[in-house]
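pasting input
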Amino acid sequence: MDALKKGWFSELHNLWPGQSMSLEVEEVLHAEKTQFQDILIFQSKTYGRVLALDGVIQCTDRDECSYQEMMAHLPLCSHPNPSKVLVVGGGDGGVVREVAKHSCVEEIHLCEIDQRVVELSKQYLPQLSCGFSDSRVAVHYQDGAEFMTQHPSQFDVIITDSSDPIGPAECLFEQPYYEKMKKALRPGGVLCAQGECIWLDLELIQRVAQHSRAMFPVVRFAFSSVPTYPCGTIGYLLASTNEATVFESPVRVLSESQVELMNLNFYNSDIHRASFALPQFVKKVLQPTS
Amino acid sequence: MDALKKGWFSELHNLWPGQSMSLEVEEVLHAEKTQFQDILIFQSKTYGRVLALDGVIQCTDRDECSYQEMMAHLPLCSHPNPSKVLVVGGGDGGVVREVAKHSCVEEIHLCEIDQRVVELSKQYLPQLSCGFSDSRVAVHYQDGAEFMTQHPSQFDVIITDSSDPIGPAECLFEQPYYEKMKKALRPGGVLCAQGECIWLDLELIQRVAQHSRAMFPVVRFAFSSVPTYPCGTIGYLLASTNEATVFESPVRVLSESQVELMNLNFYNSDIHRASFALPQFVKKVLQPTS
C-alpha cells in the first residue's frame, strides 16, 4: 500500500517493470497474511470493492464482468453439453457465478488452495461470492493438481482461474499441470486457463501454447479488455481433447434474450468470436499450427 | 510530473477519477508550454519515448502501433480506392506514417493546430515522425475545421486524430465539426475519429454516435487494446457517406504478405473485423440502428 502516494493502491511488480496502475482507496476493509499469500480487500473511490493478492489486483466490482464472463463462457459455449465443471482457483466466486448460469451444468466443483480467499470473499465481495450460493456448487480446499489426480476422466470443462505465475500459481502454467488437466477431462472435454498479457508475457504464452499443442489437438488463444489488469488486457488459453472443436465459432450461440436472461455485461457470441482475432505481433508468435 | 512518486510520470485527470497509470521516467527530453498546450517528451524505462500533452499520454514507442495502425487502416481498408486523405491533429506523424503505406493514396494532408508538436516530434520521436518524410505529405498549421471549410468535397478519407475532449480538441467531438467533415468528403467518403474509452466515456460515445447517425447512413464503433491509454483501450468512430459500406467487412482485405510488406505490428484483416464486436454493456448503448 501507499507505494506511490498516500491513499492510493499502486501495483508495482517486476512482472511489469516501469509501469504501475493505481486506484484511489476509500477504505481498507481487510488485510491479512495467510499461509499462502497476502490478501487485501479495499473499497476504492471509483472501482467498487477490490481484491488484491500479494499486491496484485485480482478483481474489482467495476470491471470483473469481462474476466469472469470470458473465463466461464468461452469454454462452456465451446462444449456442446457441459454437465460437470471444475474451477481451479477462483476463490472469489466470480467464475462459479458465471458457470452456474448454464442450466445444462449439473455439478460445479471449485478447488481453491486458500480457504481464506473464499471466506473473505463471502464476507466482503458479495457481487462475486454470490456464485457460492448455488446448490450445484461444491467447494474443495485442496491443491488443484492433486484434486484432478484423484478425479480422472470426470469433467467436461476445467477452468483454471489462477493468479500470476509467481507464488502459489506458478505450477499452474507448467506442462505437468496440463497433463493432469488432460487426464481429468472426459472425452470431448475443454479447458480454459488464465493466459496472462499479450503486451507483457508473450514468451510465457508461447511456451504454454507449445506444450499444450503437444497434448491437445486444438489449442487457441483469446484476450479481452480488463482495465485493472496490467496493460488493460488479459488472455485466455483454450484447449480441447476433441479435434472437431472450433473455438472461434461457439457451438452454443446465445440469443439476445439468453444474454439478457443470463445478465451478461460483457460476453456475447460476437465477442466470443472476436476475442480469438490476434494482433499481428501476437499472431506471428502464436500462429496456430493445429 | 512526479504527482505520485519521484521519477515516475503519473496520469491523474478528472476525466478518469480514482485511477492513474504511471510510467517510470529515465530522462525528460523536453518540456514546453505552447500557445495551445503543455508538451512533455520523455524517455521511459520500459515504453521507449513518450509524448504527453497537457499531462495525458498521447503515444509511446512500445504500444503506438495499435492506435496508429487502427486509426489509419480501419478507414482506408473500408474505402475501395482512397486517393486523397486528410488527417486532422496527429502532429506526431504516426497516423500519416501508416496512411503512406497505401500505394493508392496520392495526397496526404495533415492539419495540426500546434506547429510545435510536429517540430518536437521530428526532433525527438523518429519512430512516429518518419511519416513526414513521404513526398505525398503536406502539413498545414491550421485549425482542422477551418481547413475543411476551405476544401469542400475533396477527401476520400478524413481521420481525426485528436486528444481528449478537453482543451484544444473539445470541438472535435461536436456536431458542427462532423458537419464540416461531411462537406469536406467526396461522394463515398469515409471518416474515422478517435472515439475515447468504452469503460469511461460511454455517454460521450453515445452522443457522438447519435449526431453522426443523423448525418451519415452508416456509423460504427470499434476499439482496440492500447496499454498506455486510460483503461488500456481506445475507441474509433467510423462513418461513411456510402450506405453500402460495411465497416465490419473490409473491402480491401490485406494478404499475409501485404501485412508483412507494410510492416504492420497490430493491424490485420481479422483484427479489423473483430474490433467492431462490442461488449454487451457497450452494445446495449450503441446498438447500431443503421
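fyi Chain A has two domains: 4-60, 64-286.
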